[in-house]
Structure formats: structure tokens, C-alpha cells
């Protein structure tokens, strides 16, 4: 009897034990794996005279344990002085890591454009601790539960920072509630749609009816819809350009093909639907986020109006709209092509005003690289070149370098790049240096300048296409921590990529 029982129970116990062992390995190996971090401590103190907290910049220490911030103390508080495992960064700035809610990582399918390994190494080197990957430019696009799984599988063991995913709202799934719910239940943090052709065949554009349906489903999950707000309108310059009257190497030719009226028309159409997000509205709980705003006239006025009427609405712009102006773009320099386009310098000044006055809520990179061939540098043809600017590793120094003359503060940087993006992406434990948050931190020197020349180490898959090559920037990243792991330190990454995929529950 005993023998029989043992015979039945022993293999079961072995099975159970090995299952528990593997489960333990799978869930615990990452945080405890010393190769995840260039700093061999689970508990340590980060000291600095410039720690950016939500209530201001303090001189003191951040205590990290098990990947979380467990206390933030002022210098007067002597508690940390008796501790070991102290990393003293002196006057360098200790700020929440950047959360880039708009990055095209292109894997799987177009990994020669970018990829999880190169993209997240660039992110880590630039102080970006979380990326939210866009559902297009990879192949296939992330428009279903199955295609999300391909993304998550492709990211496994390759990501140096945490990565979340937006799903695509496309005509094919917009009227299919179960398909959208499947995608949301599988963990996308929200949806993204285009009101004009996206440039990617398997990512068609949506109209206002699709968006309305999408918002209705998103309301139940309290997740946002991100919208590329441009609609194609016929314009005279369009036919002129295609008739070859204008020089295709001239930026102004491209600029005329996508006038501000395209953005304004899209936003007008969109705001008819965002009313549904108001308190008591049919899609209360959902939220609309306008990506990469460029036009600061009619578009911005309408956005301000809708916000004050109670629409759940936010808007981002990108560093390239703040750094560059159309007047200065050289003939044939297709590195600068993106949509909506970079407009004139008066528009750029108004973008800075809108940002500093709080009408634009946050910043994102819209890192949208490709292979150099598709930028068509030989011909310099603005109409045929791939539209998309490569920037991920440089967004912090770029924002800082170009923003200094507008008197931007470290707290504004943290708000635009960390706090508000965390909120948009539903990441309550990220985006601020406060007790209880993930220890996602960038340490950087605001006054250290560097040239973005060929000697500068860039981790992007195709560094040469970046719009910032050749610029002198101010703001050098010294160290980047992701959930307490020192993933980047002065030109070196942690041996093992221990970022995790962020899936909404
Ligand atoms: C809706 O989506 C589900 C899940 O992807 C699919 O099985 C079903 O065929 C779709 N329905 C229609 C009408 O397309
Ligand atoms: C949007 O397109 C769908 C077809 O996919 C169509 O049924 C609907 O009427 C269109 N809505 C608008 C507002 O054009
Ligand atoms: C890159 O570094 C090398 C060796 O230090 C130097 O000779 C060269 O001039 C540098 N290139 C640039 C563009 O600064
Ligand atoms: Zn984009």
C-alpha cells in the first residue's frame, strides 16, 4: 500500500517541485540576476545635490531596494550617512527616467530599421527608462492579440529598458468589439489610429466612425486612443509639386504638400467625437491623445477649447518641432522629413509658448527611423524619401539644449518627459522620484557639452540618419537605472538585457 502510494505520489511531487522551480526561476531570475545591473547591490543610496522630485529639486538621497524607491530624504536628514552602498553623483541631476510614449522599434519584420536590442540600448544611453512601442512600422502591425504576441516574443531577452505596447485601431477591427477587447485584454496600453494614410500598407487609416467605436471599447478599459491628426485635403501646391514645378530637393516643396489646414481639419473632425469622453458621455473613461502636434494656430486653439469644455484630451509635441524650423532645412536634407512637417520659426516659438504655458501636455520622440537608402540621400528627394525622424538617444539633451533659452526648468522636463507620459500610459509606479515608485532614474550633467559627430557612440541601428548628427548638445547622461538595475553607465550597458514587457491587466 505504502509502496503503491509512494509510486503514485513521488512522480507527482517531482513534477510539482520542478514546476515550482522553473516558475521560481522564471519570475525571480531577472531581478536577482547580477548581470542585469552594473551595480552589484539590491539596496543602495543615490546621492545628489540636484534630485528632481515632484515637489522641487532637493539635495539629498534616494534609497533603492528591490528595484523600488523606498525613501527620498533631504541632506539635513543624516540617516543615509551611516549606510554603505552609497553612489554619490555630486552636482549631477538625478531625475525620473524618461518615458517615451511614441517610439517605432520596428521589430519584428523591419529589424533592419531598428530593433528591440538597438532601440532599447539607445534609450538606456539617452536616459529613457520606458518606451511605449507604436503598433506600426514593424511587420506585421500590432492590430490583434496574435500580432501583439509576436511583438512580446520578439522583445524577450532583448530589452534593456521596460517596453509597453500600443495596439492599432484600424478599419478591420474598429467595428469588431471582440477583436478590440481581445487586443486590450492581451495587454496593449491603449490604441493608436491614423486619420490619413500611415505610409504602411497593413495599417490603414480610420475615419470618425471607427474612432467613435474605438473610444467606446476603450472606455471600459480606461485606456487612451492616440491619434495622428492630419487629413488629406486637396491643395493647389499638391498638383504643382507633382507637376514638377517645384524642386523636390527643396524642403518648401514638401512643406506645401502638408499645410497646417490638414492638422486643423483632422482635429475639427476628431473633436466632434472626443465630446463622448466627457463626464456623463457615452465613452466616459476613455481619453484622446493627439500625437506630435506641429500646427500652433487653428489646431492649438481648438485643442484648448475642447480641453476647457471637459473633453478628456491631451497633446504631445516632439523635440524636432522645437529644435528646427523650415527656414533652416537645407536642400536635400531628408533626415528632416516627418509628418506633420516641421514648420517655420514663428510656429516653433509658439510651440515653446504652448509647452511652457501647459497647453501642450508632454513630449515624445516619435523616433521613426528607417534604412539610409529609403532616406534617398543621393537624390535628396523630399517627396519620395521616408518620412520619420531618428532621435531616441538624444531627446533629453536636445530638449534641454534648445529649451534653455526659454528658461525651462528641471521640474518641467520631468513633467513633460516622465510624469505626464506615465499617466497617459497608465503607469502609476513610474515617472516620479517618490517613495514606492520604481527606481527608474537618469543621472545627467546639464552643463557638459558634446558633439554629435562620428566619434559619438550611438546605439541606434542606423545612426547616420539622425536629424541631430553634426549638432553640439548640452546634457550628458552618466547613468540610467531601470527598476534599480544600473543598465547604462558612461558608454557601457549591463551584460544582460533585463527590461520587461509592460502588459496592461
Ligand atoms: C471579429 O474578431 C474575431 C476575433 O479576431 C474574429 O474571430 C471574428 O471573425 C471577427 N468578426 C468579424 C465579423 O469580422
Ligand atoms: C467610415 O468607414 C466605414 C467603412 O469602414 C463606413 O461604414 C462609415 O460610414 C465611415 N464613416 C464616416 C464618418 O465616414
Ligand atoms: C574622431 O577621433 C579621432 C581620433 O581621436 C580624431 O582624429 C578625429 O578627428 C575625430 N573626428 C571628429 C569628427 O571629431
Ligand atoms: Zn510616429
Automatic annotation (TrEMBL):
<keyword id="KW-0862">Zinc</keyword>
<keyword id="KW-0378">Hydrolase</keyword>
<dbReference type="InterPro" id="IPR011059">
    <property type="entry name" value="Metal-dep_hydrolase_composite"/>
</dbReference>
<dbReference type="GO" id="GO:0006145">
    <property type="term" value="P:purine nucleobase catabolic process"/>
</dbReference>
<comment type="pathway">
    <text>Nitrogen metabolism; (S)-allantoin degradation; allantoate from (S)-allantoin: step 1/1.</text>
</comment>
<keyword id="KW-0472">Membrane</keyword>
<dbReference type="Pfam" id="PF01979">
    <property type="entry name" value="Amidohydro_1"/>
</dbReference>
<dbReference type="GO" id="GO:0050897">
    <property type="term" value="F:cobalt ion binding"/>
</dbReference>
<comment type="similarity">
    <text>Belongs to the metallo-dependent hydrolases superfamily. Allantoinase family.</text>
</comment>
<dbReference type="Pfam" id="PF24890">
    <property type="entry name" value="ALN_composite"/>
</dbReference>
<protein>
    <recommendedName>
        <fullName>allantoinase</fullName>
        <ecNumber>3.5.2.5</ecNumber>
    </recommendedName>
</protein>
<dbReference type="GO" id="GO:0000256">
    <property type="term" value="P:allantoin catabolic process"/>
</dbReference>
<feature type="transmembrane region" description="Helical">
    <location>
        <begin position="6"/>
        <end position="25"/>
    </location>
</feature>
<dbReference type="GO" id="GO:0008270">
    <property type="term" value="F:zinc ion binding"/>
</dbReference>
<dbReference type="InterPro" id="IPR017593">
    <property type="entry name" value="Allantoinase"/>
</dbReference>
<dbReference type="InterPro" id="IPR056854">
    <property type="entry name" value="ALN_composite"/>
</dbReference>
<dbReference type="InterPro" id="IPR050138">
    <property type="entry name" value="DHOase/Allantoinase_Hydrolase"/>
</dbReference>
<feature type="domain" description="Amidohydrolase-related">
    <location>
        <begin position="93"/>
        <end position="487"/>
    </location>
</feature>
<dbReference type="GO" id="GO:0004038">
    <property type="term" value="F:allantoinase activity"/>
</dbReference>
<dbReference type="InterPro" id="IPR006680">
    <property type="entry name" value="Amidohydro-rel"/>
</dbReference>
<feature type="domain" description="Allantoinase composite">
    <location>
        <begin position="39"/>
        <end position="92"/>
    </location>
</feature>
<keyword id="KW-0479">Metal-binding</keyword>
<dbReference type="GO" id="GO:0005737">
    <property type="term" value="C:cytoplasm"/>
</dbReference>
<dbReference type="InterPro" id="IPR032466">
    <property type="entry name" value="Metal_Hydrolase"/>
</dbReference>
<comment type="function">
    <text>Catalyzes the conversion of allantoin (5-ureidohydantoin) to allantoate by hydrolytic cleavage of the five-member hydantoin ring. Catalyzes the first step of the ureide allantoin degradation followed by the sequential activity of AAH, UGLYAH and UAH which allows a complete purine breakdown without the intermediate generation of urea.</text>
</comment>
<keyword id="KW-0812">Transmembrane</keyword>
<comment type="subunit">
    <text>Homotetramer.</text>
</comment>
<keyword id="KW-1133">Transmembrane helix</keyword>
Amino acid at each position: 500500500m505504502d509502496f503503491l502510494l509512494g509510486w503514485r505520489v513521488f512522480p507527482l511531487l517531482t513534477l510539482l517541485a520542478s514546476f515550482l522551480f522553473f516558475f521560481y526561476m522564471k519570475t525571480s531570475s531577472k531581478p536577482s540576476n547580477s548581470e542585469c545591473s552594473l551595480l552589484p547591490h539590491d539596496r543602495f543610496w543615490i546621492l545628489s545635490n540636484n534630485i528632481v522630485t515632484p515637489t522641487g529639486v532637493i539635495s539629498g538621497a534616494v534609497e533603492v531596494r528591490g528595484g523600488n524607491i523606498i525613501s527620498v530624504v533631504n541632506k539635513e536628514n543624516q540617516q543615509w550617512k551611516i549606510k554603505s552602498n552609497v553612489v554619490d553623483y555630486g552636482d549631477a541631476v538625478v531625475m525620473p527616467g524618461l518615458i517615451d510614449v511614441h517610439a517605432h522599434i520596428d521589430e519584428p519584420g523591419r529589424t533592419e530599421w531598428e530593433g528591440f536590442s538597438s532601440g532599447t540600448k539607445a534609450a538606456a544611453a539617452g536616459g529613457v527608462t520606458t518606451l511605449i512601442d507604436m503598433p506600426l512600422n514593424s511587420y506585421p502591425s500590432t492590430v490583434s492579440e496574435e500580432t501583439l504576441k509576436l511583438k512580446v516574443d520578439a522583445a524577450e531577452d532583448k530589452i534593456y529598458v521596460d517596453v509597453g505596447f500600443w495596439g492599432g485601431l484600424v478599419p478591420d477591427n474598429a467595428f469588431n468589439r471582440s477583436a478590440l477587447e481581445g487586443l486590450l485584454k492581451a495587454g496593449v496600453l491603449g490604441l493608436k489610429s491614423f486619420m490619413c494614410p500611415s505610409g504602411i500598407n497593413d495599417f490603414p487609416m480610420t475615419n470618425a466612425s471607427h474612432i467613435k467605436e474605438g473610444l467606446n471599447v476603450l472606455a471600459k478599459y480606461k485606456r487612451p486612443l492616440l491619434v495622428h491628426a492630419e487629413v488629406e485635403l486637396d491643395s493647389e501646391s499638391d498638383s504643382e509639386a507633382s507637376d514638377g514645378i517645384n524642386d523636390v530637393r527643396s524642403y518648401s516643396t514638401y512643406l506645401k504638400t502638408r499645410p497646417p489646414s490638414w492638422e486643423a481639419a483632422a482635429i475639427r473632425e476628431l473633436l466632434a467625437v472626443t465630446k463622448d469622453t466627457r463626464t456623463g458621455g457615452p465613452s466616459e473613461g476613455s481619453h484622446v491623445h493627439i500625437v506630435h502636434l506641429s500646427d500652433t494656430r487653428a489646431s492649438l486653439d481648438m485643442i484648448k477649447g475642447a480641453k476647457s469644455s471637459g473633453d478628456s484630451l491631451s497633446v504631445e509635441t516632439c523635440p524636432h518641432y522645437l529644435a528646427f524650423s523650415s527656414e533652416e532645412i537645407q536642400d536635400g536634407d531628408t533626415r528632416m522629413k516627418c509628418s506633420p512637417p516641421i514648420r517655420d520659426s514663428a510656429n516653433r516659438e509658439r510651440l515653446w509658448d504652448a509647452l511652457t504655458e501647459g497647453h501642450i501636455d508632454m513630449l515624445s520622440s516619435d523616433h521613426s527611423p528607417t534604412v539610409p537608402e529609403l532616406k534617398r540621400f543621393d537624390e535628396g528627394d523630399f517627396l519620395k524619401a521616408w518620412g520619420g525622424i531618428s532621435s531616441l538617444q538624444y531627446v533629453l539633451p536636445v530638449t534641454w539644449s534648445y529649451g534653455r533659452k526659454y528658461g525651462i526648468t528641471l521640474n518641467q522636463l520631468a513633467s513633460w518627459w516622465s510624469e505626464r507620459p506615465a499617466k497617459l500610459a497608465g503607469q502609476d509606479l513610474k515617472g516620479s522620484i517618490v517613495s514606492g515608485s520604481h527606481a527608474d532614474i537618469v543621472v545627467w550633467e546639464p552643463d557638459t557639452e558634446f558633439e554629435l559627430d562620428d566619434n559619438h557612440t550611438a546605439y541606434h541601428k542606423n545612426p547616420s540618419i539622425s536629424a541631430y548628427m553634426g549638432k553640439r548638445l548640452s546634457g550628458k547622461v552618466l547613468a540610467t537605472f531601470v527598476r534599480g538595475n544600473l543598465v547604462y553607465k558612461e558608454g557601457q550597458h549591463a551584460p544582460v538585457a533585463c527590461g520587461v514587457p509592460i502588459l496592461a491587466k
